[in-house]
Amino acid sequence: MLNLLWELVRKDLRQFTADRRALLISFAVPIAIASFMGTLFGNANSDSSNAKIPLLVVDQDHSSVSSAAIAKLKGNGSVTVSESEIGAAESAIRSGRSGIAIVYPKGFGQAASSALLGGPGGELKALIDPSHGVEAQAIRGIVIQSTMSAITGGEGKPPFDITVVKETAQQAQSWSGVAHAFAGMGVQGLLFWAIESAMGILRERRLGIWNRLRASPVPSETLILGRLLSAAMRAMLIICAVIGFGMVAFGIRVHGSWPGLLVVMASASLMAASFGLFVAALGKTEAQSRGLTILAVLSMTMLGGAWFPTFLMPGWVQSISLFIPVRWAVDGLDGMTWRGNGFAAGALDAAYLLAFAAVFATIAFRRFRFEVEST
After folding, report:
1. What is the pLDDT of residues 143-176, one digit of tens each?
2. Would you call 307 exposed, middle or buried from its count of C-beta atoms within 10 A (0-12, 13-18, 19+)?
């Protein structure tokens, strides 16, 4: 009995080690993910340029006080200051491209100076993305310190107030962690579905089913396009189910554009279907392709903000995320739900997703066409 049991174990171990590439991937995937997370959070308490908080500054006063205060802010090692106009700053905050903006209104310097002699005092305006509340608290102290230093040298009670304005497309809305979670996990679900779709094609190729389909009177381009469209439709059902469940069970609301939401979901579904076709076109075996694709999907979801918002990540990660389709899918879903953005904003996110889909699909079609011509 023990000998039989040992032989069964040996058989499974031989199968596990037979494909050396698949074996290597089995170890490489968790190591790579752990290394990435360690790099991301290992230096969370260190002082580095990546820890600086981006800050927009609007100077409508153009006084010696506001100029000196902005110079002090630029010299602060905790923030990265970019000057802007009021319209551009409001648009950047509402769309989520920036998190915080400080506005020095016209007459601020004179009012703040007169407050030292008993006058009414000045008032700064802080425009914030509601999802950046923690950063806004840190910025408040930095702004007070820098502006006080410009007015009084840093002594006494601040002769001004800071009014916080939450900037979203609809002012009544605030950041929804629930909506973001369903957006992120919905997009991740699409990509994991893409993996299974790709594995299905690879399985058909291994069993010879794919070759028999290609040998039929149906043109290979039509066959591939049919697989792409059917996968996109099934992906659309998945994302609709995830977001719909969030609406019913967790009260997620569409404060933006319903047509925009549908366009974003449809574009994300087509992107995921194209990605699955891309994996199937480049893949060799199911075991090897599955491991590598899981690593790619987990990397994209982490870097793209599906697990947690990109503004919590270092600056270099935020820059990289712009080249990852997950970022545009999650931003698009966030924009149509809690941000309350209009159709144009959703269409822009959808355009980026369609661009990624076009790249994936083009490579896949060319790869499959090469296989047909070489057989």
Report:
1. 998 998 888 776 677 888 888 887 765 544 556 6
2. middle
Please state the φ and ψ torsions of residue 305, each to the nearest 5 degrees.
Answer: 90, 15
- From the list 276, 253, 239, 241, the residue with the least C-alpha distance to 350 is 239
β-pair type (100-104, 122-128)? antiparallel
**Given strand 122-128, what is the order of strands in its sheet?**
79-83, 53-59, 100-104, 122-128, 160-166
Distances in Å between the Cα of 74 and the Cα atoms of 64, 161, 196 are 15, 21, 50
Alpha-carbon distance of 288 to 22, in angstroms, equals: 5
pTM for this structure?
Answer: 0.71
Which 3 state secondary structure label does DSSP give 349?
helix
Domains of the chain, start order: 49-166 (3.40.1710.10), 177-374 (no CATH)
Pull the structure tokens for residue 83: 């000057």
